[in-house]
C-alpha cells in the first residue's frame, strides 16, 4: 500500500513536472512570439517612418518645384503686362534721331503718357510708321494740331516764327520734302527726326494721327543713361 502510494506520488510528481515543463515551453513560445511581434512591430514602424520620410521628402521637392513654377508664371504675366500695356523697350535701328538718340541705343517708352493728355511740341514719341507696315518709328513732335508748318532754306517756321532747335547739333544741308503752309489737322502731329539730313519723316509722308502714337520716349538706358525732356 505504501509502495503504491509512493508510486502514485511519483507519477503525480512526474505529471506535475511535465505540466510545469509544458507551461514553461508555452510561456517561452509566447515570449518568443511576443518578441517576434515586437520586432515585426518595430520593423513596421520603421517602414512607416521611412515611407513617411520619403513622402515628406517627395512633397518637399514637389512644393519647391511648384513654388518656382509660380514665380516664373507671375514673372511672365508681369512682363507681358508691362511690355504690352505699360512700356516699350526699343532698340534704335537707324540714325534719324542722331545725336539725341544714336543707332543701337536702347530706349524705354511709356505707353500711358498720353492716356489723359496730348503730345506736346518737343516730345520724342514712338508711333506706327505711316509708310511701313508693322514698323515703329521714333521721332520728335514738331507741330501739334492747329500749327502751321513752313520749311524754307533748311529752316523751320511754326506759325510764322523761326524756331531755334537746340537739340540739333548739325545744321541742315538738304531740303527734304519742303512743305509750305501745312496746317496740322485735329488729333494729328508733325514729326521730324533730329538728324534732318538723314530722316524719313513728316516732310515725306505727312502727319501722324494720335491713335497711331504708341508711347512717349522717357529715357535711354544703353549704352548710358539719358533722360529725355
Descriptive notes:
- The structure is a single chain.
- With 229 residues, this protein is an alpha+beta fold.
- The chain has a domain at 92-227: Ribbon (Umud Fragment, subunit A), CATH 2.10.109.
- It contains 2 helices and 12 strands.
- Strands 1, 2, 3, 4, 9, 10, 11 and 12 form an 8-stranded antiparallel sheet that branches. Strands 7-6-5-8 form a 4-stranded antiparallel sheet, with no helix packed on it.
- It is elongated, with a radius of gyration of 46 Å.
- Mean pLDDT is 81; it is low at 1-8.
What is the topological layout?
Blueprint: H1 2-86, E1 87-91, E2 106-110, E3 124-128, E4 136-143, E5 148-152, E6 155-158, E7 161-162, E8 182-183, E9 188-192, H2 202-205, E10 208-209, E11 213-222, E12 226-227
Antiparallel strand pairs: 1-2, 2-11, 3-4, 3-11, 4-9, 5-6, 5-8, 6-7, 9-10, 11-12
Q: Quick recap of the structure?
A:
The chain has helices at residues 2-86, 202-205, and strands at residues 87-91, 106-110, 124-128, 136-143, 148-152, 155-158, 161-162, 182-183, 188-192, 208-209, 213-222, 226-227.
Amino acid at each position: 500500500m505504501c509502495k503504491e502510494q509512493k508510486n502514485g506520488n511519483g507519477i503525480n510528481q512526474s505529471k506535475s513536472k511535465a505540466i510545469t515543463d509544458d507551461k514553461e515551453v508555452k510561456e517561452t513560445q509566447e515570449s518568443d512570439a511576443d518578441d517576434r511581434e515586437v520586432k515585426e512591430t518595430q520593423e513596421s514602424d520603421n517602414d512607416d517612418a521611412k515611407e513617411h520620410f520619403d513622402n515628406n521628402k517627395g512633397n518637399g521637392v514637389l512644393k519647391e518645384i511648384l513654388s518656382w513654377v509660380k514665380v516664373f508664371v507671375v514673372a511672365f504675366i508681369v512682363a507681358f503686362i508691362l511690355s504690352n500695356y505699360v512700356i516699350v523697350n526699343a532698340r534704335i535701328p537707324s540714325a534719324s534721331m542722331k545725336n539725341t538718340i544714336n543707332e543701337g541705343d536702347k530706349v524705354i517708352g511709356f505707353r500711358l503718357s498720353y492716356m489723359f493728355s496730348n503730345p506736346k511740341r518737343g516730345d520724342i514719341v514712338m508711333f506706327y510708321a505711316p509708310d511701313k507696315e508693322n514698323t515703329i518709328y521714333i521721332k520728335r513732335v514738331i507741330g501739334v494740331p492747329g500749327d502751321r508748318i513752313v520749311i524754307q532754306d533748311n529752316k523751320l517756321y511754326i506759325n510764322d516764327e523761326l524756331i531755334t532747335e537746340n537739340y540739333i547739333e548739325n545744321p541742315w544741308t538738304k531740303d527734304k520734302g519742303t512743305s509750305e503752309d501745312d496746317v496740322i489737322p485735329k488729333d494729328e502731329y508733325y514729326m521730324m527726326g533730329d538728324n534732318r539730313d538723314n530722316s524719313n519723316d513728316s516732310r515725306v509722308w505727312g502727319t501722324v494721327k494720335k491713335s497711331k502714337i504708341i508711347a512717349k520716349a522717357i529715357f535711354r538706358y544703353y549704352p548710358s543713361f539719358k533722360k529725355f525732356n
